[in-house]
Amino acid sequence: MTTDIKKYKSGKIREQNSQKILEAAEIEFVKQGYKGTSMQSISDSAGLPKANVHYYFKSKAKLYSAVLKDIVQRWNEVLTDMNEDGDPAETLESYIKNKVELAIRYPNASKIFATEIIQGAPNVKEYLRTEQRAWIREKCRIIQSWIDQGKMTPVDPEKLIFMIWSSTQHYADFETQVLTTANKLEYEPADVEHISRFLCHMILTGCGLTPSNPL
Amino acid sequence: MTTDIKKYKSGKIREQNSQKILEAAEIEFVKQGYKGTSMQSISDSAGLPKANVHYYFKSKAKLYSAVLKDIVQRWNEVLTDMNEDGDPAETLESYIKNKVELAIRYPNASKIFATEIIQGAPNVKEYLRTEQRAWIREKCRIIQSWIDQGKMTPVDPEKLIFMIWSSTQHYADFETQVLTTANKLEYEPADVEHISRFLCHMILTGCGLTPSNPL
DNA sequence: GTCTATACAAGGATAGAC
DNA sequence: GTCTATCCTTGTATAGAC
Predict the structure, then answer these.
(1) Residues 41-100 of chain B: which lie with beta carbon within 7 Å of strand C?
(2) What is the pLDDT of residue A117?
(3) From CA A133, how far away is CA A112, in angstroms rounded?
(4) Which of B36, B170, B194 comes nearest A162 by C-beta?
(5) What is the pTM of this model?
(6) How far is B33 from B48, CA to CA, in rounded Å?
(7) Helix axes A107-118, A2-36, angle to 10 degrees
(8) Residues B190-214 as b or e (16 or more Cβ within 10 Å = b)
(9) Comparing C-alpha atoms, which of A192, A187, A180 is closest to residue A99?
(10) Which portions of chain A are predicted below pLDDT 50?
């Protein structure tokens, strides 16, 4: 039936446009902050009339929520498995590497999330209080069990997690500072490897573990 | 003469009001971002009419610059001395402790600076490219000389500095996340000590040095 | 489903009274 | 030196044409 074809086509346009808007919005929200970003600049950047952005996302607040939801989902997909029977060195190393790759590949995701937290997490406080807190508690339990099994130095698991997060995300959030200092325009492929090795060395050594790669 | 007394009094009021406005602005800029902050909310928060804020600082952009200048100055005052004849363990430890204290004491300064960098450093790019880069280069030179003297493990000095910055500033910028995870409303006095000890242990151990305090 | 035109509100800035 | 009243721009949102 004609209606089905029409619906299909429309659905496709809708999806493409929504996607274009989401990507443009992510970039603009990073550069200007939530209030600093106008629906005009988002629609310009997406190559669509302003009214279409309202048509697809109803309001600026809802568009921002959609962007945040997208980011949190992307993060949750890359969470490394940890379990108490695993090897601490291997597990931490692969987690650190994943985080560095993610930070350098999707800096905007990290930046928007960082801005949110800095401003007091007005939109993600509930997520922090429930899902993320549960995730951290679970990982802390596993790290503690490694410590109890004598597999690693007794360090505070929570502070260890925060240290991994801060030192990896730094290369996304403070990209401008890192690159300006090094007098570079963008990261080079080899940088990911160097950063990972350095962070693995520092963090694993601090935990009394042996990193698999030399500095 | 009467004029002198008047001028003196006025000067004092001017300074007090300027200070009130700067403090209010710092808080508002953190919570709402630059564009998100209205001159109205700053003047409300400072307890003055909106026009006075314009009278003292001419424009929103200039007020923001003044806030940034204040922050950079406060930071520069606390920079620990480092020199190649000093002891790496002692020097790094005292630097880390200073940074943790500063982060927990003046989180807003760190937050505003972080937001600036995240957004691409539109207002401090010049500072990063000149003064800060020079500061980093100088410290890297000293760390490298320690390595050459065999005083510590050969790690990349620049990455070491970034690791100290990111892991300490995390407790200011991501305050909300850290506190929410721990189910706390604010940091306790003992937290500064715990965080410092943990970070000193991890970073010094990674550099092949021995921290002065146990975990 | 898409876009033009417009209503309505908020915010930066200033003129001019006090 | 201080504040009230006002101008003008920008931005969100929507009504209604196509």
Answers:
(1) 41, 50-51, 54, 58-61
(2) 98
(3) 19
(4) B170
(5) 0.93
(6) 21
(7) 50
(8) ebbeebbbbbbbbbbbbbbbebeee
(9) A192
(10) 1-9
Q: In B, residues 165-204, which contact A (CB 8 Å cutoff)?
A: 165-167, 169-171, 173-174, 176-178, 180-183, 194-195, 198-199, 201-203
List C-alpha distances in Å: B191 to A172, B92, B101: 27, 19, 10
User: Residue A5: its pLDDT value, please?
Assistant: 38
Give the C-alpha distances (Å, rounded to integers) separating A193 from A98, A101, B134, B159.
11, 9, 26, 13
Residue B131 carries which DSSP code?
I
Which of A 114-133 lie inside 8 A of B, CB atoms?
Answer: 114-115, 117-121, 125, 128-129, 132-133
Whether residues B33 and A31 touch (CB distance < 8 A) is answered with no
For residue range B180-193, list pLDDT tens digits in order.
999 999 999 999 99
In the predicted structure, residue B79 carries a pLDDT above the cut 80: no
DSSP summary character for residue B48:
S
Rg for chain B (alpha carbons), in Å? 21
**How many Å from the CA of A141 to C1' of D7?**
62
* Inter-chain CB proximity B121 and A163 less than 8 Å: no
Smallest CA-to-CA distance from A121 within B173, B123, B194 is with B173
A186 CA → C1 C1’, Å: 41
CB contact under 8 A, A174 and B181: no
Three-state DSSP at B151 gives coil
- Give kind and range of the element (H or E) at residue A141: helix A133-148
Q: Say yes or no: Cβ of A37 under 7 A from any atom of strand D.
A: yes
Q: Do A104 and A172 contact (CB within 8 A), yes or no?
A: yes
Q: Read off the tokens for B111.
A: 């937050």
Q: What is the model's pLDDT at position B75? A: 83
